[in-house]
Amino acid sequence: VVNGYFGARLAEMVTRYGGEVRRVEAEWGRAIDARAVRAALEDGGADLVVVVHAETSTGVQNPVREIAAAARAHDALVLVDAVTSLGGMPLDVAAWDVDACYSGSQKCLGAPSGLAPIVFTPRALARRVPCRSFYLDLGLLQEYWVGRKYHHTIAATLVYALREALTIVEEEGLETRWARHERHHRVLTAGLEAFNIEVGAGMGPLAGKVWRVGLMGAGSVPSSILILLGALEHILRQTGHAVQPGAGTGAALEALG
Ligand SMILES: Cc1ncc(COP(=O)(O)O)c(C=O)c1O
User: Using one digit for the tens of pLDDT, what is the confidence trace for 90-134?
Assistant: First the structure.
């Protein structure tokens, strides 16, 4: 499923691993319609459906639950990239019946980069094949993490940092955290709309045309939004754009309530 840089990159990775890729595409900046995935599966099927939950390159959320249901109906496994979504928006791999899902420590979990939480269903593990990569060999990784048998040297400091970040997530409460990210998304959008600026991507075909603004984890706070909007207003006015003083910050403050 390709509607942004990270979806396109996944398609490239599958190709590099020797897979035959059929792309279901949507315009960058628009979510994929699960019916298009269903139609593609009806027309030839697939072993695996690969989808990015939150396409960081454009800020778009894809309907993973519906795409996973379409895949299940056609006996395809589902792999979800939840690098940006985990900790920032609802993600329920069990209820959505997702076969494999990975994330990153550095986005909405707010830990340092360098770790990738990952889960599999027994259904996915049953279809395991010998792995050419020593480092991604799940059998060896499982023996290492669960059986304590040497495989590689762990970055122990990162694990401690992730543990601390997860404690902070737990203290805030997952649902409160989701609501905070959603609310600040709306506040920023309200502020930018006051300047007639659309939030979007700055990668791939949209590079140089739009900016990306990251509001994740500890950075998803009103002060980040207000500083950004104030700075944008200053730049826009300096470069000769007719902007009402306080237009963006005013709209954001109103949205904050
Ligand atoms: C949706 C998505 N997938 C994958 C990645 C790649 O993560 P990393 O840079 O940690 O390899 C990113 C990074 O921004 C991402 O946003």
Answer: 999 999 999 999 999 999 999 999 999 999 999 999 998 888 899
How does strand 77-81 pair with strand 60-61?
unpaired
Q: Ligand 1 within 6 A of 5 CB? A: no
**In the prediction, which pLDDT does 223 show?**
93
**What is the reported pTM?**
0.89
Answer whether 7 contacts ligand 1 (Cβ < 6 A).
no
Give the residue, out of 55, 84, 107, 109, with the most ligand 1 atoms within 8 A of its beta carbon, to mutate for a pocket test.
84
Residue 147 is predicted with a pLDDT of 93
**Token pair recorded at residue 149:** 């048998």
Burial class from Cβ neighbours inside 10 Å (0-12, 13-18, 19+) for residue 215 reads buried
The confidence band for 202, taking pLDDT boundaries of 50, 70 and 90, is low
Rounded (to 5) percent helix, strand, coil in the chain: 45, 10, 45
Tell me what the mean pLDDT of segment 191-220 comes to.
76
Helix (H/G/I), strand (E/B), else coil: 30: coil
Rounded CA gap, 219 and 245, in Å?
25
81: helix, strand or coil: strand
How far is Cα 196 from Cα 115, in angstroms, rounded to an integer?
38
Residues 36 and 34: their CA atoms lie apart, in Å, by 5
Q: Separation of 84 CA from ligand 1 center, angstroms?
A: 7
pLDDT computed for residue 200 by the predictor: 55
- With the C-alpha atoms ordered 136, 138, 144, 149, is the resulting torsion angle positive or negative? negative
Alpha-carbon span 90 to 61, nearest angstrom: 11
- Ligand 1, closest atom to CA 52? 1
